[in-house]
Every structure is written in structure tokens, then in C-alpha cells.
Amino acid sequence: MSEIASEAVRPATRQSAFRGVLARLNLTTWVGVAIVVLLVLAAIFAPYLATHPPAKQSIMDQLAPPGGGYLLGADQFGRDIWSRLLFGARYSLTIGLFAILTALLIGSLIGMTAGYRGGRTDILLMQVMDVILAFPSLILGLALVALMGATMTNIVIAIAFTATPAFARIARAAVIAQRDREYVQACRAMGFSGGRILFRHILPAILPEVMVMTSLWMATAVRTEASLAFIGLGLAPPTPTWGGMVREGFDNILSAFHLALFPSLAILILVLAFNLIGDGLRDAIDPRLKDAS
Fold it and tell me: Which of 15, 102, 139, 192 is an S-S bond match for 187, by CB 3.0 to 4.6 Å?
């Protein structure tokens, strides 16, 4: 009977908590959300917003300045920068999203298992995560892509591999904070399995912290993908990627600075937007962090 009552009360409690988090979101968080939404829409409707095919070359329009037939100018091959930025957003967002979702699922599962089981399982899993964390994420991602090849799938795997320990750590800490609570002890007393306790009762309690980490690591994933493309380990040309556009623009930085400027600004804006969302969610979930800062 108590289980039925708790199941009836829990949805309302979760809904009110969710509304409370939304009410505490500040203006900068909504600015970040608006920027991400606009960039996602731009990526989705890139074929309709682009003024030229992204790979179309024009010898007569090499290094054309912004304005005229090219909104943001043309690169050294006469390709439209505006169109390449729009299609490049597709690759940056897709790679970042799938990489972080993969890291979220695997890392959270590892962290939740380690935190709930404890003992040798916890020690073994966390030591493996510590070994991965010992390597700088960009260097580790660079090495993995260099070994596997610069394809979209391999880039996603490399970024996800470097991000998994962070999600495992945050999930483990959150589960340890929850596993001795009264509601968990009550579930054990009623004979619930460990999987049911973890995924049906503990997971909703730790989900806000995991979502904050997701937003912050989306910014890291976008930055890592751009860095890999900048050093030549991104998607092969003529595929438009923001990091690749910055690298190509550096060859003509003195005569046509706009080639590197606009993709750099795109990366900056997207990374800033995800950081604003992550910081706002963190402050809304735990207002004490905002007061302390």
C-alpha cells in the first residue's frame, strides 16, 4: 500500500521540482538556449538558407570579400563561406550530440554501478576511469582518431571515449549520496532488485546533475571536434567543418582575415551557448552554488 502511495505522489513531486528549476533559470541561460535552438534550426534548414552549394568552386571569386554575391565572402577556392558555415553546423552538432549521448549512457551506467555496488567493483571501475582521465582529452582524442581514421563514426567514438570518465564520476558521486537514503532502504526492504532501485528510483534523483554535465560537455565536444579538424584530423575536404575552415583561413590570414574569422566566431558562439546553459542549470538545480559564488 505504501508503494502505491509513493508511486502516486512521486510524479507530482518531480513535476513541481521541474517547474521550480525552470523558474530559477536566469536570463543568460535562456539566451544560451535561444542560440542553440537557432543554430540547430539553421543546420536543419541549411539547404534552404544557403545561397550557394557548399562545395561549389569559382575561380573568379577567390577570396571575395563579404558582400555582393557572397554574404560572408568566399574562400581561396571561391566557395561561399555562409553556405559552408550552415552545413558545417550540421557536422559539429551531430558529432557533439552523438558523442556526448554515447558518453552519457556508458559513463552513467558505469558510475551508477560502481556507486551502488561499492567494494571491489567500485575500485576496479573507477581505476579504469582514472587511467583514461590521466590523459588530456584532446591528446587522447587525437591519438584515437589518428589510429582509427578520420571518419565521423571514429571521431564520435574518440570524443565519447574521452568524455565517459567525467559522466562516470558525476554519476558515481550522485549515487553514493543517494544509496543510503530512506527511500532506497525502503525499496531494499520491500525486496526490489538493484536494477529497479537504480533506474526507477535513484536515476530520477541524479538526472539533474547528469544533465548539467551533458550541457557543459557538449561545449567540450564541439571544441574538440573543431580542434581535430584544425590540425587535419577532421572530416576530409571538401566536407565543410568549422575547424577545417579556420585552418584553411590561416593560409590567407593577412590578405583575407574573414576566412578564419567567421568560423571562429561560430565555434565561439556555440561553445559559449552550451556553457551558459550548463552554468544556468547548475545554479537553478542548487541555488547554494550561486550564493557561494
Answer: 192
* Identity of residue 208: P
Neighbours of 225 (CB within 10 A): 31
Q: Which residue has the cell 564520476?
A: 169
In the three-class reduction of DSSP (H, G, I as helix; E, B as strand; rest coil), residue 260 is classed as: helix
Q: What share of the chain is helix, strand, coil (3-state, %, to 5)?
A: 75, 0, 20
Q: For the chain, how many residues are written? A: 293
Say how far apart CA 93 and CA 90 lie, in whole Å. 5
Query: How confident is the model over 77-130, as pLDDT tens digits?
Result: 889 999 999 999 999 899 999 999 999 999 989 998 888 888 888 889 999 999
Phi and psi at residue 181, to the nearest 5°: -70, 160
Say whether the peptide bond before residue 65 is cis (omega within 30 degrees of 0): no
